[in-house]
Design goal:
Elements lengths: L2 H11 L9 E3 L8 E8 L3 H12 L6 E4 L7 H9 L3 E4 L12 H11 L8 E3 L8 H7 L2 E3 L7 E2 L13 E2 L9 H14 L2 E6 L18 H13 L4 E3 L2 H13 L1 E4 L7 E7 L13 E6 L5 E5 L2 E3 L1 E4 L2 E6 L6 E5 L15 H10 L24 E4 L5 E4 L5 E5 L5 E6 L5 E4 L5 E6 L2 E6 L1
Parallel strand pairs: 2-3, 2-9, 2-10, 3-4, 5-6, 8-9
Antiparallel strand pairs: 1-13, 7-9, 11-12, 12-18, 13-17, 14-15, 14-18, 16-17, 19-20, 20-23, 21-22, 21-24, 24-25
Bound molecules: zinc ion.
The site of zinc ion has 5 residues, from loops.
Length: 440
């Protein structure tokens, strides 16, 4: 390597300007091709006991629309909200039309349920749209039933208070896994968003008041399994989160900032959506062009999970939440000579932690508490005998047994996630292009 050239390049570089065309906001979270949302009406007890666990198995989240006067299991739904599911309104009384209950049902639910983004969506009883101006003052989106346009485009519905959804269960054709996966495939082809509307189940737990059009829970479980197998293409998320994402993405701009320290790119992610319902602070997925192989990303001084791949750094950031700084982590500190061979540390760590061939016996055996590499990924066994992966946001994670049979594929969420548990033995975990061995 010619370090003289590196020195000259570093001296010329200084603070690196970021150009707007070098940065892109993903159409869907994680740069996936499409989004899908599962919504559940009428607060059936089996939404708590059966539906939520089916989603949690894959780290997926859904929307649960509660009828205030139908005695929801408030503590059960609060636990689901704490776990990332969306709790939303389905009126107070489930009358023919919920006009007059737009604000009061939201308030009543807020008295019981605390969740990060508030009560921001509603599903209308009997699919009858109530008073639109009252809706606009209290919600960012409202769901109707099917209208023939359930597979929406990338910008969502033509009317945010008429978001359509495929009705599932015995009254229609959406009662087997293929119906769900077919609709998700249509969404992927369109680059859009498809929603489902489910009441109770034909074969699981207590439906309570959710007796209409019972759905085979196994059809939904099969749909979630398929989504997980296609996780690089389809984003499974609650209706409210997808609605926030679309509105923020359409309104947000990346604004480059001048100046700053050497070997950094600084910019802001901003929108000016103004309503009294939401701050529109759901994270957006961003990629920024870079030649750096090892970066640190911060927003308002706090570290963000990131990865470098194919000449871009990928991360999720919150609009209107402060300066985003992408820093060349491999660069020598400003005070020391820039002629130091800057790549030595990252090369050493990647060659010890990663392997090209996952079945090469020379691959590192990762049983230590955490094995950091230059992407700050950690792979380890938890005390309750799970394989845990951390810091792998957006990357593919695949677990193989010692014979090389694939056991599970999923996608990194960024935070630490349990990816697999099973019989005693050695397992091979591929995260992006790197491989670890973990003993359970
Ligand atoms: Zn209902």
């Amino acid at each position: 390597m010619d370090y003289k050239k590196l020195t000259v390049a570093a001296a010329l570089m200084g603070a690196s300007m970021i150009y707007a065309q070098d940065a892109e906001i993903a159409t869907w979270a994680g740069f996936r091709k499409a989004a899908t949302s599962f919504t559940f009406d009428d607060n059936a007890p089996n939404h708590v006991t059966h539906a939520a666990p089916a989603f949690d198995e894959y780290g997926y989240k859904a929307t649960f629309n509660l009828v205030v006067n139908w005695n929801p299991d408030w503590s059960g739904f609060q636990k689901m909200a704490d776990n990332g599911h969306e709790i939303a309104s389905h009126s107070n009384t489930h009358g023919q039309n919920m006009s007059g209950e737009e604000a009061s049902s939201k308030k009543s639910i807020e008295n019981h349920i605390t969740q990060k983004y508030g009560i921001v969506t509603v599903a209308y009883p009997n699919c009858n749209v109530p008073n639109v101006s009252a809706l606009q003052q209290n919600y960012i989106a409202g769901r109707i039933c099917g209208n023939g346009q359930e597979v929406m485009g990338k910008d969502g519905p033509s009317d945010w208070f008429r978001v359509p959804a495929h009705m599932t269960g015995s009254t229609g054709s959406f009662n087997n896994t293929n119906a769900f996966t077919g609709a998700m495939q249509q969404a992927i082809q369109k680059g859009g968003w498809v929603m489902f509307l489910t009441h109770g189940f034909s074969n699981a737990g207590n439906n309570g008041n959710a007796n209409y059009s019972p759905t085979d829970l196994n059809a939904i479980k099969g749909a979630l399994k398929w989504a997980n197998q296609n996780d690089k293409d389809i984003w499974v998320a609650p209706m409210g989160f997808v609605a926030m994402y679309i509105k923020e993405r359409k309104a947000s701009k990346i604004e480059p900032q001048d100046g700053g320290a050497a070997n950094t790119m600084t910019f802001e992610l901003k929108h000016n959506i103004a309503d009294n319902v939401s701050k529109y602070d759901y994270p957006l997925s961003i990629k920024v062009k870079t030649d750096w192989s090892n970066v640190e990303v911060t927003q308002d001084g706090a570290a963000l999970e990131s990865k470098v791949d194919g000449g871009y750094v990928y991360f999720d950031a919150v609009p209107n939440a402060g300066k985003i700084v992408v820093k060349n982590a491999a660069a020598a500190p400003e005070s020391s000579s820039s002629s130091e061979p800057e790549s030595s540390s990252s090369e050493t760590s990647s060659s010890s932690a990663g392997c090209v061939n996952p079945f090469d016996p020379g691959c590192q055996t990762g049983v230590a508490a955490a094995i950091p590499n230059n992407f700050l990924i950690s792979v380890y066994r938890s005390s309750d005998n799970y394989i845990v992966v951390g810091g792998a946001q957006g990357q593919s994670i695949t677990v193989f047994n010692s014979l090389g049979h694939k056991l599970r594929s999923t996608r990194g969420l960024g935070a630490e996630q349990k990816v697999y548990t099973g019989a005693k033995g050695m397992y091979i975990v591929k995260v992006g292009g790197r491989t670890w061995k973990v003993k359970l």
